[in-house]
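[[Sequence with tokens]]
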Amino acid sequence: MNYIERMEQEYIELTGRLEKLYKGIKTLEGLTADELGLMYAQYYVMKNYEEVLSRRISLAKELGKRK
């Protein structure tokens, strides 16, 4: 597995974790405001990382095509 494939695998796993976290935010009952706030903070950080990882994958593919 090359580094692009590893990043793509990480991206797939990350999107799965994001979906689970978002579902938890929307469906879990009895969360305190602090818990909910931390879950949202985690979600947004992970979402930003997802975007960065997507850009890295795209760039790596683009640069690979030039070689």
